[in-house]
Specification:
- By secondary structure, the chain is mainly beta.
- It has 4 helices and 17 strands.
- It has one domain: Quinoprotein alcohol dehydrogenase-like superfamily (Methanol Dehydrogenase, Chain A, 8 Propeller), CATH 2.140.10.
- The strands form 5 sheets. Strands 9, 10, 11, 12 and 13 form a 5-stranded antiparallel beta sheet that branches.
- Strand 5 and strand 6 form a beta hairpin.
- It is globular.
- The N and C termini lie far apart (about 40 Å).
Length: about 290
Amino acid sequence: MMAVAYPINRAEREAVANYLGTKTEEAKLPASAYCAANVAILAGSVSDSWSGWSPSASNARYQPTAHAGLTSGQVPRLKLKWALGYPGDVTAFAAPTIVNGTLFVGSASGAVEAVDAKSGCIHWVYQADGPVRAAILPVKNGSATSLVFTDLIGWGYALDAKNGKLIWKKRIEEHEAARLTGSPAALDGVVYIPAASWEETRSLNPEYACCTFRGSVSALRAGDGSVLWKAYTIDRAAEKTGKNSVGAQQWGPSGAPVWSAPTVDTKRGLLYVATATIIPFQPPLRATL
C-alpha cells in the first residue's frame, strides 16, 4: 500500500480518502491565528536568524553566544512563550528556519508557514504537494529573499519569503520512490538539493524488483529553478542482474541515497555529501550562472 500511496500528491490522496471514506471538512486555522496588520514580516534583527539546516556554511549547527542571545545559566529559567499546532497533522518533523525574526517551517501535511518568532502569529501559509521534512533554506534573490525547500515526493520549491507566493516548482527526482529529506545548500545563486528514496525499505519485500534508484545532488539556479547539473552517487544506471529465489527481477548497481544537507567548501570548490553507502563523492561546484 505504501508503494502505491506514497508517490501521489496531497490532492490525489484526499480524492482517494473521500472516495473510500466519509468526506469531512479539512481543519482550518482560525482567524485569530494570523498576525494583525501591524505585525510586519522579516522585521526583526539580522541576529535573530538561523539559516536553514545550519546558520553558517560550516554546517556545524552551532550558534555563537552573540547571535543566540542566551547563556547556559539562563537555560534552566526558560518558560514556554507560545506553541504552534498543525491542524490535521499527527507529527511534525521539519527543523525551523528563522530569518530576521520570522520563523519558517514545514509540516507533515505539506503546509509551510511563516510565523512571527515573538508572538507565534502566522503571516501566511503555502500548501506543498507532499510532506515537508527538511529545513527551509533562505536564499537572497536580488533585494528579496527566496525560501527554497523540498517535499517527500520529489518536488523542490522556491517561495517569496514576504508573501509566500510560489516563484518556481521543479521535480528534483523522477524516480517514483524518491524521498527528499536533506536540506538544500546554496552558494552564489545556486542551490544544491540532495535526493534519497524509499527503496531501502521496499527491498525487504522479496517480490520487489530491487533496485533502480541512485542517490544524487542537483544544482539549480535559485532565481528560476532551472537545472545546471545533476551528479549521481552511483556512476551508471541500474541494469538487470537476474532474478531472485521468488522470481522477482533484480537490478543493480543502485543505492547510495543522500539523506542529509550537503556542505559547501568554498576554498576547494567542492560539495561534500554523506550517503547511506560509504563511498567517496565530492562533486565540484561547476555551475555556471
